[in-house]
Amino acid sequence: MPSILLSGPAVEPITLAEAKAYLRVEHDDDDLVIAAFIAAARIHVETQTRRALITQTWRFVRDAWPADGRLSISPSPLQQIVAARVYESDGSSLSIDTQAFVADKASAPAIVVFAPWSLPVPGRTIGGIEIDVNAGYGDAGTHVPEPLRQAIRILVAHWYENRGLAGAAPMLPLTVSALIAPYQVLAL
């Protein structure tokens, strides 16, 4: 099921001030570089864990409803289903009440259950179903589990300290892998 990021996080899991304090940087000369490292570290952690750290809106596109009435939604954690629609063959859309879906938000990835026979069949054979969801730990970095925030700090420090190296980049610290391992959503 293809997924499309509709709106990314409004903030990062750690602030520029937190990163600078961790790095022991007291000047403002490298603020843009450090901010870029923070965003890159968040993306790295999100990719490795298959989680959204800060609230984000995603769209999932399907061709048809699964016969078993179950959808797997990733990234985790799922906050809510925002909207759902089915497209007719003429391109018009029909909104579906989000109450038709029951979400197991504790699962990773989240499982959304529904009665497929009660939902309209899409008239468009490709991309006939769209489901929009909010995912993430919340709107503030303080809601993100501390081990994931620490992994971001370590990545930022690693990249900041090794930014001048040309050619082969040094390996990432093993500490980062150890911190994020318990939060990884495994694919079966």
Structural notes for this entry:
With 188 residues, the chain is of the alpha+beta class. It folds into two domains: 10-53 and 140-183, Phage gp6-like head-tail connector protein (Hypothetical protein yqbg); 56-135, no CATH class. The chain is built from four helices and eight strands. It has helices spanning 16-23, 31-49, 146-161, 174-180, and strands at residues 3-7, 56-62, 70-73, 78-87, 93-96, 102-104, 110-113, 129-135. The chain has a five-stranded antiparallel beta sheet, with no helix packed on it. A hairpin with a 5-residue loop joins strand 4 (78-87) and strand 5 (93-96). Helix 2 packs across helix 3 and helix 3 packs antiparallel against helix 4. The protein is elongated. The model has no long low-confidence stretch (mean pLDDT 92).
DSSP summary, beta strand count: 8
State the fourth-level CATH superfamily of the largest domain. Phage gp6-like head-tail connector protein
Q: Give the SSE string.
A: EHHEEEEEEEHH
> In one word, what is the shape?
elongated
Which segments are poorly predicted (pLDDT under 50) over 5 or more consecutive residues? none
Top-tier CATH class of the largest domain: Mainly Alpha
Counting helices, strands and paired strands, the structural category is: alpha+beta
- End-to-end CA span: 15 Å
Cα-atom Rg, whole angstroms?
A: 20 Å
Mean pLDDT: 92
Task: Give the structure's gist in a few sentences.
The protein has 2 domains: 10-53 and 140-183, Hypothetical protein yqbg; 56-135, no CATH class.
SSE topology sketch:
Blueprint: E1 3-7, H1 16-23, H2 31-49, E2 56-62, E3 70-73, E4 78-87, E5 93-96, E6 102-104, E7 110-113, E8 129-135, H3 146-161, H4 174-180
Antiparallel strand pairs: 1-2, 2-8, 3-7, 4-5, 4-8, 6-7
